[in-house]
Specification:
By secondary structure, the protein is an alpha+beta fold. The chain folds into two domains: 178 residues, no CATH class; 114 residues, no CATH class. It has a 17-stranded mixed β-sheet that branches. Helix 5 runs parallel beside helix 7 and helix 6 runs parallel beside helix 8.
Length: 323
């Protein structure tokens, strides 16, 4: 535990030295320049020429058993810089990890003991994997005004720099034990004995996350009741302010999962509200989602009851933030 805490504190200190480090590594390194993403100067300089990614969405594959990679819509995700041992995993294949390598949805970037890697997501955001870290690009739509990104930190420490988001944009970082929602900030997520979110600038909402929350998220893909309850939970999530960190350990996760379990049981007693076939198939946390249709008083009552049940879980979500 002490080693993990020391590692994460070192990561925060590294964030505080970002601008000095930028001058040392030629160009503007991720999470280093104070205004690099806000000014979009990095987006204006695409660096070495690389081929454009294929069209987003399903594509033909020479091997019918191996699905073709799906690339982000509205922009590209790419490795901007690598140092030391870095690899990109796509399914069971290891790809060359070099500047300009395009990342598809589901790709994982992994760094070794002496490695680090910077990933750029268009002009929306960038993130830096420190040594012995792994992160997966789970979802990415980079269109301005409706951007949506989910990054999963599987292990180690990752520093994020996200431009200020518009009202219809979402950026979520998950890790074992937690889910962080971002509105435009610089912050760190560490996955180890405990999962940690530490904020340098801006504000980050954090939910403890485990198997029960994942089941609710799966149900929310097709059921409006589960989706409404989850969005209500997210609105109640504790917020980490600048200079503070929030640590979700096993005890904190167990408290939250117990509350989620009670919510899950209650929702099974409510009549489901299947999402219409033409309802946008966005993740439940997407800020661009329209309000769920509730054309009759009974449906509106069901959604109100789901929100009220989610509010009952609020005490179990409280995780003290520390400096």
């Amino acid at each position: 535990m002490k080693c993990e805490v020391k590692r994460l504190k070192c990561g925060v200190k590294r964030m505080n030295r970002m601008e000095d480090r930028a001058k040392m590594i030629r160009g503007l390194m991720l999470l280093v320049a104070a205004a690099v993403l806000a000014s979009c100067s990095r987006a204006g300089d695409p660096g070495p020429a690389v081929p454009a990614p294929p069209e987003a969405g399903p594509a033909a594959s020479a091997d019918p058993e191996v699905p073709a990679p799906r690339f982000p819509e509205g922009g590209r995700a790419e490795l901007a810089r690598t140092e030391g041992g870095v690899s990109v995993l796509r399914g069971g294949t290891v790809l060359p990890a070099e500047p300009g390598t395009l990342l598809a949805l589901g790709d994982r970037v992994r760094t070794g003991p002496e490695g680090s890697a910077e990933v750029r997501l268009g002009s929306l955001a960038a993130f830096l994997l420190l040594s012995e870290s792994e992160a997966e690009l789970r979802a990415a739509r980079l269109d301005a005004g409706s951007a949506l990104v989910e990054v999963f930190v599987a292990s180690g420490t990752v520093l994020f720099d996200v431009r200020t988001l518009g009202g219809g944009e979402s950026f979520v970082v998950s890790a074992p034990r937690l889910l962080s929602g971002v509105r435009g900030t610089r912050f760190l997520v560490g996955a180890g004995i405990a999962s940690v979110t530490a904020v340098r600038e801006g504000r980050v909402a954090v939910l403890p996350s485990g198997p029960v929350l994942e089941r609710l998220a799966a149900a929310a893909r097709t059921d409006g009741v589960a989706r409404t309850a989850l969005r209500a939970l997210f609105a109640l999530a504790p917020v980490v302010e600048p200079g503070r960190e929030l640590r979700v350990d096993d005890a904190a996760l167990a408290r939250a999962e117990t509350a989620y379990g009670a919510l899950e049981s209650y929702l099974t007693e409510l009549p489901p509200l299947p999402l219409a076939p033409d309802f946008p198939r966005e993740p439940w946390f997407a800020a661009s989602l329209p309000e769920l249709p509730a054309p009759d008083p009974r449906s509106r009552e069901v959604l109100d009851r789901a929100r009220a049940a989610a509010a009952g879980a609020r005490p179990a979500l409280a995780v003290p933030a520390a400096a």
